[in-house]
Amino acid sequence: MKLILFGDSHLAKFKTKYIKKVEKSVNGLDIYNYAFGGAASTDGMIKSNYISNLKPDVMFLSFGTNDLLKGQISIEEYVENMKNKILSTLISRP
To answer: Are the C-beta atoms of 23 and 51 separated by less than 8 Å?
Structure first.
């Protein structure tokens, strides 16, 4: 099973040592961390096609904190980014 972490520092803090420990405890689990500190929903929009092509079985998303902290977009724009751009791309994969 392929699990992907995609988003901001809330997920980026899961470092390789911890990921390897979890992978060893769950047979057949591969975890890929594509999260980084400072990531905003606009970063998710840019990378969502790439992440979708990885064909994850399970994905954890964490966006929003930096959108609000940076104040660069409104809450309505954030919801639009997540719902109609990021999630629709990830869900529509074959």
So the answer is: no
